[in-house]
Amino acid sequence: MTNIQNLNNNQLEEEFALINPQQELTESEKNIIKQLPEVIFAINDYFTSLNSLYLKKAEELFADFSKNDLSIEANPNLNEDITQEINSNTQRLANSFKSSIEVGKKMEIEKKQNSELVQKNRQLEVENYHKEVRIRQLEQQLGGISADFALTLALSISHKIKNNPQAVAQEIIKITDCPNLEYTITEQGYINFSFPTNYYQHFFAETLAQKGQNLQGEKKDIRVDIEYVSANPTGYLHLAHFRHAAIGNTLANVYQFCGYQVVREYYVNDRGGQINSLVGSIFVLYHQLQGITVSYPGKTEYREVLELILTQIRHDLAQCGIKFDIWFSETSLYEKKQHLDLIRELQAKNLIYSQEGATFFRSSLGGDDKDRVIIKQDSDYTYFFSDILYHQDKLKRADTIINVMGADHHGYISRIKSACQLLGYKPETIQIILVQMVDLLTEGGQKERFSKRAGNTIDLEEALQYMDMNQLKFFLLEKEPNQPLSINNELLKENQEKTRLYYIQYAHARCHQIFQKAQERGIDKISSNIDLLKGQNERKIFNLLIRFSLVLENIVEENKPHHLIHYLYELTQVWQVYYQNSVILETENPELTSQKLLLVKNIQIILKLGLNLMGIEAPERMQKI
Questions:
Q1: Who has the most CB within 10 Å: 127, 138, 205, 260?
Q2: For residues 247 and 562, is the Cβ–Cβ distance under 8 A?
Q3: 540-593: pLDDT as tens digits
Q4: Across the strands, what pairs with 328?
Q5: Can you tell me the distance from the alpha carbon of 125 to that of 523, in angstroms, rounded to the nearest whole number?
Q6: Alpha-carbon gap, residue 93 to 100, rounded angstroms
Q7: H/E element holding 191?
Q8: Could you tell me what percentage of the chain is helix, strand and coil, using 3-state DSSP and rounding each to the nearest 5?
Q9: Which of 270, 283, 273 is CA-nearest to residue 309?
Q10: What are the tens digits of pLDDT across the range 203-257?
Q11: 8 A C-beta contact, residue 167 and residue 187
């Protein structure tokens, strides 16, 4: 079929007519065709139903062939040659139908997955649109009307029903039924909402009284397992691993703050070829240093080597303030005989078969391009089998599992999800965050990928020579996870004083200094009212402060902690403008001062909360650049 997305309207009508040959298109159908996404869904649904019908018919025919007994004994009137020919043709047709059924089932699974993915993406787009509309701020006044957020829904509806946008906006107001919201409707149909002063006043008073703990989400009966870092213990951690650590740890903190039951997990790959090579090489080297010549041992039980490396990994992570609830050993899965239970389950579900001395998993049934080996010819288990085994173990312990992994695991996502789906788990319970590579810029400006094998890495100790721990975490979190990060020593030096972190921390320290000065002057009382704070810059700060919880929800939805940095920096900028254009401490106006101190304290609380969620300190004093 022609690529739908490249067709114009006339071609779309022709294409649509091909799948509906019995009917002539009505004007209504032609109008529908102009909406490209609807055509795609219609065609997808058509072929899904067609494929299901084909499968049903093929299975019926195959069942009929299976019932026929074309042996000579059952058909004495047929001679042997004719019977053999009939049997041969029948068997060929039966095999063809059987093959078609398997292919058809695979197509049906893929169609279902693709359809669900498209529907999910479509739903997410709608949700993101409405979320953006809900929280979108008006940076400037629209027609002289200031607002906290705006709704544009009336415009799109009015175009569809051919009605006045203002009238539609009025109907929307009736439906929403939010008496506590102040609103105005523009000529174009924009509904500009403003929170009443008492809403902000209550929010600020609660945040002050509970020191921001009122912003935590309600406790949820949802277990979330977040696995991150999980570097092979074949060497020490380098800066690319610490990017994973910073992202995973911040996500865990945010999820926990939002009310989820969070488990932080490190998966120790302590078996397999790389581990055997490392331990075996050290075994040989150790004996050589003793003047003893030994042959390479292959598999060896000198596990103390791994423990030495893991001890250093734990130390480096603890130095970053990162601790795990579970250090899960891959070897433990086999020591507990869990692999045998999984093999029996796969056999019972007819998901494995033997071929040329190896055991294959029928991953193609889940949409993979081929079946995958899980037990090699030498009877050793593959990495893929261990991954299935480990994910099954996690899915028994958690409602949602999140893996923070390198971008080179892109092909791994669909494979592990489909494998778990074939075992009866919902694929959406597995969320995988791909973190782009960290490149090392050489003196000639060329990029080199960090690699323990190549030996071109920057470890924690070296990185901390150029920036402190807070700056390092911020630097690793500042970009979206799917964006690559390129660094060199000079860049590390520059970030020591030019990162946005400095200004965020400085904004927090400024709040502390204001209260120190207020205390010295005897005007440090904090009001519970804000009725005197009527300026536009104050209103911007109001709106930014109440958005904090929405930002955290957005991080949970997208698994992208860099949103928190952008939010804190935006709050810092608005606070800086307000500070430069306003006198905070006015001795002659103590009530106004006390109300401004309520605002300053809320800024301080939320800046500290945001920094702490990233594992970054919020200092009370800093040196000015």
A1: 260
A2: no
A3: 999 999 999 999 999 999 999 999 999 999 999 999 999 999 999 999 999 999
A4: 267
A5: 50
A6: 10
A7: strand 191-194
A8: 60, 10, 30
A9: 270
A10: 999 999 999 999 999 999 999 999 999 998 888 888 889 999 999 999 999 999 9
A11: no
